[in-house]
Design a protein that fits this description.
It is a single chain. This protein has 307 residues and is an alpha+beta fold. It has helices at residues 3-9, 11-28, 56-71, 102-116, 122-127, 156-166, 168-172, 196-201, 206-216, 249-253, and strands at residues 44-50, 77-84, 89-96, 129-134, 138-145, 177-183, 188-194, 224-225, 238-239, 256-259, 265-267, 272-278, 293-300. A hairpin with a 4-residue loop joins strand 2 and strand 3. Among the domains are: 33-134, Multidrug efflux transporter AcrB pore domain (Alpha-Beta Plaits), CATH 3.30.70; 190-217 and 241-278, Multidrug efflux transporter AcrB TolC docking domain, DN and DC subdomains, CATH 3.30.2090.
Length: 307
């Protein structure tokens, strides 16, 4: 007797089996990934660091090679690739064997990076080294542009600042989003332009300006007035608050660089100028009409539902 005859002669068994298949299918629907092409790329972890002001050779020798030496040989690693750009960015991609846990891979790489951090330049350690699970699957790409060039208030810097403040974190919190990458964005920053001739005339160097900027543009705890141990009868305690980081071009211009023999002061505005502009001008993005724009790519997290 064939299997089909068993189900034909036993309608109750056929009904029960059909219901089981339907129930299993309903349970599986929410957890099944829905995508046009399956994700066959191996799990990847991306390490990125920024060495501000350095060229590609300095980034390679001072950052990329140091990180690679520590990361190389991490558990379940398949291969490793790296790139050192002329704008000071070091990017390392570590690919792992298929089937390995991406979270465990990220932790293992993070531990290796922590061992390498003491050997990195001070500027790199201050800006930080990021370790994230990478995804090669771009889910969506959006482009933001000022359609009316006459409205100068909607510059690339303004659009970049608005997106970074209101969009980036919200999109990253969406379930299934792995990463958000911008193209042509310019974060708003204070830019200090120094005149070499004026620096020389005032017996100063760019390093002197950087040192004074670091010492005068920082948060410093000033303590308390009337704190313990206090004399008998002390009733109040006041916390002293000092001005923190500089927040305007005028405040940056008035940074004191040094004193003169005549008792005067050399300020930043005496050797250069300060303006509010883009953090970097190295990369530009254009729309199809050639208008400057800001592009955003949303990457899908491996194993997530694209819908």
């Amino acid at each position: 007797m064939s299997a089909s005859n068993n189900f034909i002669t036993r309608p109750v068994l056929s009904t029960v089996c059909s219901l089981l298949i339907v129930i299993v299918g309903l349970i599986a629907i929410p957890i099944l990934p829905i995508e046009n092409l399956p994700d066959i790329a191996p799990p990847t972890v991306k390490v990125q660091a920024t060495y501000v002001g350095a060229d590609a050779v300095a980034v390679e020798q001072g950052v990329t090679s140091v990180l690679e030496q520590q990361i190389n040989g991490v558990e379940n690693m398949d291969f490793i690739t790296s790139n050192s750009s002329s704008d000071g960015v070091s990017s390392i991609s570590v690919s792992f064997d298929s089937g390995t846990d991406g979270n465990i891979n990220q932790v293992n790489v993070q531990n290796r990076v922590s061992l390498a951090e003491p050997q990195l330049p001070e500027e790199v350690r201050k800006s930080g080294v990021t370790v994230n699970k990478a995804s090669n699957s771009i889910l969506l790409v959006y482009n933001f542009v000022n359609e009316d060039p006459a409205k100068t208030e909607y510059s690339v810097e303004t659009i970049s600042g608005y997106l970074d403040k209101n969009l980036t974190d919200n999109v990253k919190r969406v379930k299934g989003v792995g990463d958000v990458t911008y193209f042509g964005n310019r974060k708003i920053a204070f830019r200090l332009w120094l005149d070499p001739e004026k620096l020389t005339a005032n017996n100063l160097s760019a390093t002197d300006v950087v040192n004074q900027l670091r010492s005068q543009n920082r948060l410093v705890p000033a303590g308390k007035i009337g704190g313990s141990p206090a004399p008998e009868g002390q009733e109040y305690t006041f916390t002293v608050q000092l001005q923190g980081r500089l927040t305007s071009t005028q405040e940056f211009e008035n940074i004191i660089l040094r004193s003169t023999e005549a008792g005067g002061l050399v300020r930043l505005k005496d050797v250069g100028r300060v303006e509010l502009g883009g953090e970097t001008y190295g990369i530009d993005a254009m729309d199809l009409k050639g208008t400057p724009s800001v592009g955003i790519a949303i990457y899908q997290l491996s194993g997530s539902n694209a819908i």
